[in-house]
Write a structure and sequence with these properties.
eight-stranded parallel beta barrel
Length: 470
């Protein structure tokens, strides 16, 4: 299929997907890569869905990326002896390390790292921020808190600690088992949850090696503070607005989203905007106007991809949600101001040959009616630098490595095909034109721009730019 949009769609698979045919329908509606959420489901469930994706990939003849999303450490209250308790404004309750069931005066918080990090005046957010507790007093085995609003506390509710950096690895024992399993399956991307600092990326990278690309999820205030360093060490960023929207004031989230997208554009890292994009379509065949505007804003800001979570994983209208997201993307990208806005926000190129070529290609596509840019690449770096420029034409990547082709599925405007190695410029030009026509990305008479590197087959050697007529 010829690509009809440049912004990619990342869709989560879950119980709503029951067969390879369902996966194929999602792809035909616009999905470019899939997310396996390891917070839910068994290894067997994920293996089954992984197999469906690869089956569809083979049927359609082009690469589909697969991202595994690790759960990360989930911070939760303990249990209550007699069910939920009601707190009134100003009520005080101890959160301690005692594992016995709690009551209205105390409850277990089985996380000593939280107890150690808290100081008087700090806040804890319980149940996605429905209850805010302020620390009044601290001791070695617990903290006394005061309710800032009336609300209910019940068993195992989640706890967020926005004002403290916790001495806590983002990789639990469960995550490590899941990671080993996902890498064995052959996932292309690993999304790391609960990132707080650059060292978290280093720790995860030591386990992943070169088996997959690493996507850092930004959902903690401390991660926002260390964004530049985290993005530099990661292969991509996900703006996980669920927990982020709990831990920072809601009115700050749009500005943070813009800042993260700008940072990723500058570094040439793909960036995914995620969480509740078309949330109402879990139970409705049509989105709200606010949701449509949210997706449209992410597209206009230059995000590489937008993500669907429960909408496709467990919702009643997964196919309709993907189709709607595709419509929004196509409509925004067809707007005359879209490309102009991307040009205004274009980052400065680095003093490298790949950046010089990519910058030249962007200018050429403004002067000539370029139908497609064809990039020959081994590692995918050339295509990512070309994507960073947000050229007017789509980018067809030809690579000898299926792994590279799959990993590029998240990048803006990049569509990949596995192709053999070459020994001459003429071979490259012939193959580029043949593949562009085969993918319906160029018609006879169209202008095609080709970039490649000599010596051929060497990573980081891109130094050739050629203009051809299809």
């Amino acid at each position: 299929m010829a690509p009809d949009k440049k912004t990619k769609i990342l869709a989560t698979l879950g119980p709503a997907t029951r067969s390879a045919a369902d996966v194929r329908a999602l792809v035909e509606a616009g999905v470019n890569l899939f997310r396996l959420n390891f917070s839910h489901g068994s290894h067997e469930d994920h293996a089954l869905r992984y197999g469906w994706i690869r089956e569809v990939e083979t049927e359609l003849g082009y690469p589909l990326g697969i991202l595994m999303d690790l759960q990360g450490p989930k911070l939760r209250l303990g249990q209550f002896a007699e069910g939920a308790v009601q707190l009134a404004l100003g009520d005080r309750i101890w959160l301690d390390l005692d594992s016995t069931p709690g009551d209205a005066k105390r409850v277990n918080l089985p996380h000593p790292e939280i107890i150690q990090a808290l100081k008087p005046g700090m806040s804890l957010l319980v149940d996605d921020g429905r209850v805010r507790l302020q620390v009044v007093e601290t001791r070695a085995d617990g903290v006394l808190t005061q309710a800032c609003n009336a609300g209910e506390l019940s068993d195992r509710k989640g706890v967020n600690v926005p004002e403290a950096v916790l001495e806590l690895s983002p990789l639990t024992e469960k995550d490590r088992r899941d990671l080993a399993y996902g890498l064995q399956l052959g996932v292309d991307w690993v999304a790391l949850s609960f990132v707080q600092r650059p060292e978290d990326i280093v720790e995860a990278r030591s386990l992943i090696g070169d088996k997959a690309f690493l996507m850092a999820k930004i959902e903690k205030p401390s991660a926002v503070e260390h964004l530049d360093a985290i993005a530099e060490l990661s292969d991509a960023i996900m703006i996980a607005r669920g927990d982020l929207g709990v831990e920072v004031p809601a009115e700050n989230v749009p500005g943070i989203q813009k800042s993260i997208i700008k940072c990723c554009r500058q570094l040439g890292r793909p960036v995914v905007v995620a969480t509740q994009m078309l949330e109402s379509m879990r139970f409705s065949p049509a989105p709200t106007r606010a949701e449509v505007t949210d997706v449209a804003n992410a597209v206009s800001e230059g995000a590489d991809a937008v993500m669907l979570s429960a909408e496709t994983a467990s919702g009643d209208y997964p196919l309709e949600a993907v189709a709607m997201m595709s419509k929004i993307i196509r409509r925004m990208e067809a707007d005359p101001d879209y490309q102009a806005q991307l040009d205004v926000s274009r980052p400065e190129p680095q003093a490298t040959i790949p950046d010089a070529l990519s910058c030249a290609v962007r200018r050429i596509s403004r002067i000539l009616p370029v139908a497609v840019l064809v990039c020959f690449t081994n590692s995918g770096t050339t295509s990512l630098r070309a994507s960073r420029e947000r050229p007017g034409a789509s980018i067809l990547t030809l690579t000898p490595h299926l792994k590279t082709a799959r990993q590029l599925s998240v990048a803006w405007g990049v569509y990949s095909q596995v192709s053999e190695r070459f020994n001459s410029v003429d071979e490259i030009a012939t193959t580029a034109l043949d593949e562009a026509r085969r993918r319906d990305m160029a018609a006879p008479g169209d202008t095609v721009v080709i970039t490649a590197g000599a010596p051929f087959g060497s990573s980081g050697s891109t130094n050739l730019l050629r203009i051809e007529t299809a």
